[in-house]
């Protein structure tokens, strides 16, 4: 799922279709960064496919992959969400959700048939996706006097950091996300600056 400095996700949404005994399984794969991204995607597919019978999904999030969910949406327990999740994991991906929309074709597939159908639809959607390596970021909160701004900005640029938020008053407060590959150098420098207040956490 990850290297020591990067995660692998998909670059853009994809869709694929699998058919089994008359039922249609439409698999939609999306890159996401938080669980809250799921709800509008799910609602859009409910609106688009209002005659479908199930909207099953699974996602895996984060560089450690500890945040995940699998939902069978009324299918027999373990027959839809987990097969989808296993294919996300098998592909070595994170920050991904796959939603599979099912149109019932009139013939019951049984649990083994459902597992295979949801698995295959997910495989096809993920195979169609371009993979994207994203750097794992470490967040730092910095606070310092305004006259030190240019010095701090040079360090952020050198370490390929991104300013996530900033507040400027008598003191400057920044939240900076730095790629893990540069985190040690960044941390060492800001620790050497005794005039700077800081905190750090992995994202």
Brief sketch in words of this structure:
The chain has 203 residues and is of the alpha+beta class. It is 31% helix and 38% strand.
Describe it for me?
With 203 residues, this protein is α+β, with helices and mostly antiparallel strands. The chain has helices at 38-48, 81-90, 110-127, 149-158, 180-192; strands at residues 6-10, 14-20, 23-31, 54-61, 67-71, 96-103, 131-135, 137-145, 162-168, 171-179, 197-202. It has two domains: 6-133, Ribosomal Protein S5, domain 2 (2-Layer Sandwich), CATH 3.30.230; 137-202, Alpha-Beta Plaits (2-Layer Sandwich). β2 and β3 form a beta hairpin. The two termini are 16 Å apart. The mean pLDDT is 92.
Low-pLDDT regions:
none
Indicate how many domains the architecture comprises.
Answer: 2
List the helices and strands in order.
EEEHEEHEHEEHEEHE
Mean pLDDT: 92
Q: Report the span from N to C terminus.
A: 16 Å
**Overall form:** elongated
Residue share in β-strands = 35-45%
Fraction in helix:
25-40%
Rg, Cα atoms, Å: 22 Å
């Amino acid at each position: 799922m990850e290297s020591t400095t990067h995660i692998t996700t998909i670059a853009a949404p994809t869709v694929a279709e699998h058919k089994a005994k008359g039922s249609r399984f439409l698999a939609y794969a999306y890159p996401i960064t938080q669980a809250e991204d799921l709800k509008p995607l799910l609602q859009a597919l409910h609106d688009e496919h209002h005659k479908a019978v199930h909207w099953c999904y699974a996602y895996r999030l984060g560089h450690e992959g500890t945040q995940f969910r699998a939902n069978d949406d009324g299918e027999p327990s373990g027959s839809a969400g987990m097969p989808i999740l296993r294919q996300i994991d098998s592909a070595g991906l994170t920050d991904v959700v796959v939603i599979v929309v099912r149109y019932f074709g009139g013939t019951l597939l049984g649990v083994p048939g459902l597992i295979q159908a949801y698995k295959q639809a997910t495989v096809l959607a993920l195979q169609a996706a371009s993979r994207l390596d994203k750097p794992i970021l470490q967040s730092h909160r910095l606070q310092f006097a305004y006259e030190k701004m240019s010095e701090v900005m040079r360090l952020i640029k050198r370490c390929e950091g991104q300013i996530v938020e900033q507040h400027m008053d008598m003191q400057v407060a920044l939240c900076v996300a730095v790629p893990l590959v540069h985190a040690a150098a960044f941390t060492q420098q800001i620790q050497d600056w005794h005039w700077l207040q800081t905190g750090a956490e992995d994202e």
